[in-house]
Specification:
Radius of gyration: 27 Å
Number of strands: 15
Structural class: alpha/beta
Shape: elongated
Bound molecules: adenosine-5'-triphosphate, magnesium ion
């Protein structure tokens, strides 16, 4: 037996001019995520129909609920195109529901069907009233029964499951996510994917001060994000030399500011190399000394690339809520040191001066070190078939 899923696009439909491009991208993403399942997909400008074998229904639903750009999914019952079958099926569905009032809404794309939409709604509604004790309420019904009469069959649905919303991943091109092992950057990545940005990730590590477990943790976070995109790569930057040199040459209070300016310089260069339009990170205003507005200005001044900070205005608790929802939190709190958490000074500057940064930076040959960093950066492709738990 085949089941039909009706998919609505939601916000995507407000982008009139680009609608076709959006739908094409959504289809491509669905094709990727449903790889290995037998299905048939048909789409038009307002919705999409996916037919699957009943045995594949649950796994198919589970996967579709991870696709950005899908507003809702309804599982439809199908019957032959005749009014008696439609009436019987609607009563069969409603007998299992608890409700007082209902409304029938009919759409008829099959214009050969002998009754028009209003006639179908009224005949089906009348039949329900004869068989179940309830009333019609066209304005505020407890249950809305949707009847869609199409060429091959009529589809009926009541329950609608909410999808993730947002835009299809990739529609905006690529962004470079500065991905650490913390709580904030995976959430920033998720929120960017939701707006249609495809991600590449950049991770700075300082072996042996940071561990291989810390890297595995970041790869695991990337693999969770990868479930929404299937396309994620992590670029690992060996940052030890540059970090040690900063620590030897700059005063304690400035080391974090200068280290972050170096990270931005590298992210800027690397984003150009791999054609990412923007840099994305998990900075949140005021969270730590390097994220005061003054610090952000001083750190940001080394690059012209737009920096997207999806969690900039969120409280930590709001960020944690999302991290829990997307299942990154438990991994993020594993206790491995990151290069930002080793050698943290007691009193990092909260109002740094650009001139001072430039002076301390002039004492080191950072350009050569950045070239080295970029040359030695290596890529880990997150294997889409690898289950998250295999990674740790
Ligand atoms: P936490 O949840 O503990 O705040 P965090 O990763 O956000 O973790 P911050 O010091 O607040 O730590 O760093 C701000 C942002 O800088 C991160 O969200 C991330 O985007 C980027 N960042 C920090 N460390 C790294 C790193 N080792 N590699 C890549 N990006 C990093
Ligand atoms: Mg943070």
């Amino acid at each position: 037996m085949e089941k039909l899923l009706l998919i609505k696009y939601g916000e995507l439909t407000t982008k009139k001019g680009n609608r076709k491009v959006f739908i094409k991208m959504l289809c491509k993403n669905i094709e990727k995520i449903l790889y290995g399942i037998n299905y048939n997909l048909e789409q038009n400008l307002s919705c999409m129909y996916i037919k699957v074998e009943e045995k594949d229904l649950n796994v198919c639903l589970e996967k579709l609920l991870q696709v950005f750009g899908i507003h809702s999914i309804a599982i439809c019952e199908s019957v032959n195109n005749n009014i008696e079958d439609i009436q019987n099926k609607v009563v069969e569905i409603l007998k299992n529901k608890n409700f007082n009032s209902f409304k029938i809404e009919t759409k008829r794309s099959n214009k050969k069907f002998s009754l028009n939409s209003l006639e179908v709604s009224s005949k089906v509604g009348g039949f329900v009233l004869k068989n179940i004790s309830c009333k019609v309420d066209v304005h505020n019904p407890d249950i809305l029964v949707n009847v869609e009469i199409r060429g091959e069959a009529t589809y009926i649905y009541v329950d609608v499951i909410s999808g993730l919303g947002g835009y299809p991943v990739g529609i905006q091109g690529k962004g470079l996510l500065m991905l650490s092992g913390g709580i904030d950057s995976p959430v920033a990545g998720y929120l960017s994917l939701k707006r249609g940005v495809d991600l590449e990730c950049l991770y700075f590590e300082s072996l042996p001060h940071t561990s291989l477990e810390a890297r595995e943790k970041v790869l695991k976070l990337a693999s969770i994000l990868n479930e929404y995109s299937l396309n994620i790569k992590v670029h690992v930057v060996p940052f030890t030399n540059i970090q040690e040199t900063i620590y030897k040459n700059a005063p304690d209070s400035y080391i974090i500011t200068i280290m972050r300016r170096m990270m931005y310089r590298i992210a800027d260069r690397y984003s150009k190399k791999i054609k990412c339009k923007v840099i994305i990170n998990g900075e949140s205003i005021g969270q730590v000394a390097s994220q005061t507005l003054t610090s952000m200005v001083v750190i940001n001044s080394v690059t012209n690339k737009p920096i997207i900070r999806p969690v900039a205005c969120m409280d930590k608790l709001e960020i944690i809520d999302i991290a829990n929802k997307i299942n990154t939190y438990q991994t993020s709190i594993l206790p491995y040191e990151d290069c930002c958490t080793i050698f943290v000074p007691k009193h990092p500057v909260i109002n740094p001066k650009i001139e001072k940064c430039e002076y301390y930076e002039s004492l080191i040959d950072y350009k050569t070190m950045i070239d080295e960093c970029i040359k030695n950066t290596f890529v880990v492709k997150i294997n889409e078939s690898k289950k998250i738990n295999d990674l740790l």
